[in-house]
Model the fold of this input.
Amino acid sequence: MDELIPLSNATLRDLPSDVRVPRYDRSTLSAGIVHIGLGNFHRAHQAWYLHRLMDKGLCHDWAIIGAGVRAHDAAQREKLIAQDCLTTLIELDPSGMSAEISGSMIDYISVEEGNRSLIERMAELDIRIVSLTVTEGGYYTDPSSGGFDSGHPDIIHDAQNPDKPKTAFGAMIAALKLRRAQGVGPFTGLSCDNLQGNGTILRDVIVSLARMSDPDLAVWIEQNCTFPNSMVDCIVPATGSKELELVRSFGIDDKAPVTHENFRQWVIDDNFCAGRPDWDKAGATLSGNVHEYEAMKLRILNGGHQIIAIPADLLGIETISGAMAHKNIRAMLEKTIEQEVAPNVNAVPGMKPLDYLSLVERRFSNPEIIDTTRRVAFDGSSRQPGFIIPSIRDALAGGQPVAGLALMSALWAKYCLGAREDGSVIEPNDPNWATLHETARLAQSDPLQWLAMRQYYGDLGNQPEFSNAFVFWYELLAREGVNAALSAYVESDSAQALAI
Done:
């Protein structure tokens, strides 16, 4: 292989001709957005939409300033600053790979205790949107109530030290306080995480935290800032040795490349108090009906990810495409979604729920996407309540079967015991792993101990249609294993399974 070309502004024109590079002069870009949480997803998704707008000669005053609020974000900053905040995006299509350099990000704020640099940058007039990808578990939600967790130590710290916050939300509040004092005006807070009503949740966190230290500021934020809901979708694996090898195969030395599937979707509520880029001109959808798009995606795609990842990891299957190649895992996905989830998901313009399931199955089956089952199974304590348990409640309310969803919960309980079918150890894979592991251990003698975790299941343990099915599957998994339980579900009549 020829010598690799280090990625930078100075080397863009030296890259191989088959690598798409920015068609705009990056030196003319100016900032409009601060984005907190510069992981792979943001760079493959929101930053790409803006990059393609800039390619059209549009929105050059909306460039992204990256930011992070955790100590480990400093390593990502160092990598990206060294390559002028450029990212190589590698599209993994079964018909062939392609590479593109995204240039919509122009700086990355220093990561520091107290977040003073971040606060001051967000307070400047040119910043009109502060967006976030901090994971669905990062919004300080009380699992038992679904509301704001005012007792979390990070929240208590920020309420007591509003000028030196630990959290992204505390930093946003401190910046808004400066903007109000300086007469700069509000900015829009835009969540890009996998949460239904993510903008509403972000607004609740910001206003509730502000109220704990400055009630007048909380009122000002409520009256002036906007927090649009959005739905985001693109499968983006983590970057490891394989991804670094892929970028080198294009002749590029990029320390933080991103691989992604050949599909993106972004649906946004058009509610921006200080303006926005014309994302719709790059393929995003501006809609007043974000909720229905969210429900379809979260229940079918994100819920489907959980349905296949957990049994696959238990069976030692390492990738999502490998899970889809397992006959009974795929059949469980299809049957559970068709009979227990889709009946409570509304169609959206141009897409019915079962058509969306077919699309999801094709995407999950893409062998070029090396997305691990362990990554997808991570943080079940956020993802099960977010993507699976709402479908259980809706199915019970609608009189639909819940056998597959009960099996999903039993598989999660078995997963948290920390051992695969072959005896290998499942290393901790959840922020609350210690509690989950101990509860799973107790459930070995009393399965209902698992459903007694009201912070996740609420009163579902008291509903026999669900709890009886859960106990049946849990005991079958303990006696005969994952494959036997999957076969029993796939081959059963759902009405009979529900009555077990």
Remarks:
- Residues 495-500 have pLDDT under 50 and may be disordered.
- The chain has 22 helices and 14 strands.
- Residues 290-314 form the longest helix (25 residues).
- The radius of gyration is 23 Å.
